[in-house]
Specification:
The chain is mainly beta. Among the domains are: 97 residues, lipopolysaccharide transport protein A fold (Sandwich), CATH 2.60.450; 147 residues, no CATH class. The chain contains 5 helices and 49 strands. It has a 27-stranded mixed β-barrel. It has a 10-stranded antiparallel barrel with strand order 8-9-12-13-16-17-15-14-11-10. The protein is elongated, with a radius of gyration of 36 Å.
């Protein structure tokens, strides 16, 4: 029997080799142009493998038929199962009934009553598709017909009905999805929502990817009771060392909604620009420099805060602040030198106009890296900064700063004590130009300032090992002597009359940034505890004492503690104590727990400041807490609370769960959130939203969020 098998194997290969088809089997019978194989037969053709109970191949017509338990494999692309399959190798057509296919890459499978294919296009009859266990799938999509392009890796379903756990959820006349991760143009998963104030929400992203180095995403949105708008994201990779993105947004309010919430603007618009380049001098100017260069752009502008609020339906994910900072940074760094240029632009959303806001456009920096002499005992470095301060309405200035520290250091008493002396020379020059503010009568003139300070510092690092842990203590003390001071022009005038003190609102002091000279005594004490080669406790304590013509006073006592109590529990504390006021002026406490099943965080932030003239106490007290519980491998429950104690205001709270399996994510969240808006009366207002979020992700096809929102004034 074994001899018969090998003879049949050799014979079949000779018969069919000219057609690039190899037929193997325990029993192969050749009758004219027809070869029949049984006994675990296998056919190899092109890049596919086929086996069945019986294989029949006609060499004249190049047609192969597979009968009973048919399996077809194509590399790592797909696996097909059927009872009967007929393949025409010349016309490149195939018919299978019934038809079951598994995509090897994505893990999805499809089952239909029949399939007809021609080359890379497959037409499918009625059936279903899923990414879950085929025995009892958690979710499945039933369809009346479908087609699949194996070259484009795209599936189209018609009359699709989504069924989750045998419960029908919704119907779509058409649904298409990719079977790989190739970038392609098309419609992305939409987002739906319902709001008592904004009506029905619908956002349909449209994606264009004509080339592999850039793409565009359009996100038109409709809020039936509020308005409509469009946000556009353009992303690009222009070189191997750089990438960037540009976002443009526009939304138009309905008049009724704007009047009800007293919105300051009927239209909200803005832009965001982000760009990073890690070698601009080399790639743009073909400069083969030894050092490295870089460019960073992070720019934003908007007419009000609702440009941020309206970017997506889940406004809890938006980061909103009254201040918008735009930056452009460029640098070149070599072994010895650093050159940098920086642009900063500030926009305050709670102000009607930013015409008097001082911008940095630009500043230039030169830094000479630290050089050592005399066997590393003498250290020298230098900094120079030129800054252009600009604003449309008001005085403008150009300022130069120069700093040169010279340090002598050495170890004492067999290196138990480190000693250093630093002489720091600093000078500042400023000049003014530009239009005069309305009603401005103060004359500005050029200013010159110089100082020379002296600092003596002693420090040590002591290590003491114990049986199970190691203690490292690092004390330090330094004294800075405020040496000579030189004032001329602008700086002399406002230094002598004492007008420009910290907190002054006089416009003449806008550019006066000098602090009164004072001697400073500083103490520091750092403790480190190490166990098993791992640092589990760190404590940093510091205290400054300042001395000037009025006497001496205490700076704030500051302490920072990081403590890993156990592998699951950690604690962080930062405290500032004001001796003059005899009270804690700043404190942050955070307690964390994570054992892999339960995670929890409790945090409190507190500040107490004196502001204004006369000084008034302003304090903030903010609590946050969040927790999650991994009930089992499928269910996770979570919650979050953020409460402003000083304002007696709940900023945000959230509770929900997520059910996650290999093929399905289903989540439900209830969220209350307060978001800022720009109003006509107060200028800076807010509204409270309540959300119900439903998340459904069909792996690996995709999914979407649906939310219901309640808004109150």
């Amino acid at each position: 029997m074994r001899n018969l098998y090998w003879i049949s194997l050799i014979t079949s290969s000779l018969l069919l080799g000219q057609e690039r088809v190899e037929l193997y089997g325990g029993n192969v019978d050749a009758n004219g142009s027809i070869a029949t194989a049984i006994g675990d037969p296998i056919a190899l053709y092109q890049d596919q493998i086929m086996n069945a109970d019986e294989l029949v191949y006609d060499r004249n017509t190049s047609i192969m038929e597979a009968k009973g338990n048919v399996n077809i494999f194509k590399g790592k692309q797909y696996h097909i199962i059927s009872d009967y399959t007929r393949v025409d190798l010349i016309k490149e057509t195939r018919y299978s009934a019934p038809y079951y296919m598994t995509d090897q890459d994505s893990g999805t499978w499809m089952s239909t009553d029949e399939a007809k294919s021609c080359k890379n296009e497959i037409d499918l009859g009625s059936g279903l598709v899923s990414g879950c266990d085929p025995v009892d799938p958690l979710w499945k999509i039933r369809f009346s017909s479908a087609d699949y392009d194996t070259e484009e890796m795209w599936v189209n379903l018609y009359n699709a009905r989504l069924i989750v756990n045998d419960f029908p959820l919704f119907y779509l006349p058409y649904f298409g999805y990719p079977t790989d991760k190739t970038r392609r143009s098309g419609l992305l998963i939409p987002t739906f929502g319902l709001s008592n104030s904004e009506g029905f929400y619908y956002q349909q992203p449209i994606y264009f990817a004509p080339q592999n180095w850039w793409d565009v995403e359009l996100r038109p949105q409709l809020r039936t009771s509020r308005g409509s708008g469009l946000y556009t994201d353009f992303r690009f990779v222009d070189t191997a060392s750089s990438e960037g993105s540009i976002r443009l947004g526009y939304f138009k309010e309905q008049t009724k909604y704007a009047e009800e919430y007293d919105l300051a603007n009927l239209k909200h618009y803005g832009y965001d620009i982000n760009y990073r380049h890690r070698a601009p001098l080399r790639e743009w100017f073909d400069l083969e420099l030894e050092g490295e260069s870089g460019l960073y752009v992070d720019g934003s502008w908007m007419n009000d805060v609702d440009y941020l609020n309206l970017q997506q339906s889940d406004e809890t994910q938006n980061v909103t602040a009254n201040q918008v900072l735009s930056r452009i940074n460029g640098y070149y760094s070599s072994e010895d030198n650093y050159f940098g240029t920086y642009f900063k632009h500030y926009q305050y959303l709670d102000q009607e106009s930013n015409a008097q806001t001082i911008q940095t456009l630009p500043s230039f920096q030169y830094h000479r890296y630290l050089e050592s002499f005399l066997g590393n005992h003498l250290l020298l470095s230098g900094d120079a900064m030129a800054t252009h301060f600009y604003r449309p309405d008001g005085k403008r200035a150009v300022q130069g700063d120069f700093t040169v520290p010279l340090t002598f250091q050495r170890g004492l008493f067999d290196e138990y004590l480190d000693f250093s002396y630093t002489a720091t020379a600093f000078s500042n020059v400023i000049g003014f130009y530009g239009n005069v503010q309305s009603g401005e009568t103060t004359n500005y003139e050029r200013g010159l300032y110089a100082q020379l300070d002296h600092t003596l510092a002693f420090s040590s690092t002591l290590v003491r090992p114990y049986e199970s842990l190691t203690h490292v203590i690092s004390p330090s003390v330094s004294y800075t002597l405020a040496g000579e001071r030189f004032y001329e022009g602008y700086y002399e005038k406002y230094h002598d009359n004492g007008m420009c003190v910290p907190g002054s609102n006089d416009v003449a002091c806008d550019y006066y940034t000098l602090n009164e000279p004072s001697d400073t005594l500083s103490f520091g004490l750092n403790n480190y505890f190490i166990e098993g080669g791992k640092q589990f406790l760190v404590d940093r304590l510091s205290q400054n004492f300042r001395y000037d013509d009025q006497g001496s006073y205490y700076g704030e006592l500051q302490n920072e503690l990081e403590w890993e109590i156990t592998t699951a529990i950690s604690y962080y504390n930062q405290t500032s104590y004001n001796h003059d006021r005899n009270r804690i002026t700043k404190e942050q406490n955070t307690l964390r727990y994570n054992d892999g099943v339960v995670t929890a965080n409790l945090s409190h932030y507190y500040t107490d400041d004196l502001k204004g003239d006369p000084a008034k106490t302003e304090y903030s007290s903010y609590w946050t807490a969040d927790a999650s519980y991994q009930y089992n491998r499928y269910y996770r429950f979570f919650g979050l609370v953020a409460y402003d104690y000083s304002e007696k205001l709940m900023k945000r709270n959230e509770v929900g769960f997520l059910y996650s399996t290999r093929c399905l994510d289903f989540g439900l969240r209830y969220v209350q959130n307060r978001r800022p808006i720009l109003t006509n009366i107060t200028g800076n207002g807010s509204v409270a939203d309540s959300y119900i979020f439903i998340t459904l992700i069909l792996k690996p096809i995709g999914g979407s969020d649906f939310n219901y929102k309640l808004t109150s004034n």
